[in-house]
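Issue 218. Parser rejects a valid record. Input:
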Amino acid sequence: VQLQASGGGLVQAGGSLRLSCTASGSILSINRMGWYRQAPGKEREMVATITRAGSTNYAGSVKGRFTISRDNAKNTIWLQMNSLTPEDTDVYFCNAAEFGTSWTGRYWGQGTLVTVSS
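Output the parser choked on:
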């Protein structure tokens, strides 16, 4: 499975960005897809995930501001990020987990940098 992420960039605090991630390859094996983020020197943390059936999960710090969505026909997920703050500045990674995987999958896309200026 290959994951292609896009959509990062520079935005002012209070602004919005939308990330996208498209999967290719053995996609029928994939259930949960999601976004993680990582700052230098810190552990990668879950931002939001969504299952093939549409069940979502969010980190507390983004709940109410970020929305994850998915189109199974297009093998694509999106992360709509609103009301961004400088604390959201990170490299964001797309992840895909196979059916039977408890949470984080073994497939990662390349990171996309999100920078929020104050």
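Fixed in the parser; the record now loads. The first strand starts at residue 2 and ends at 6.
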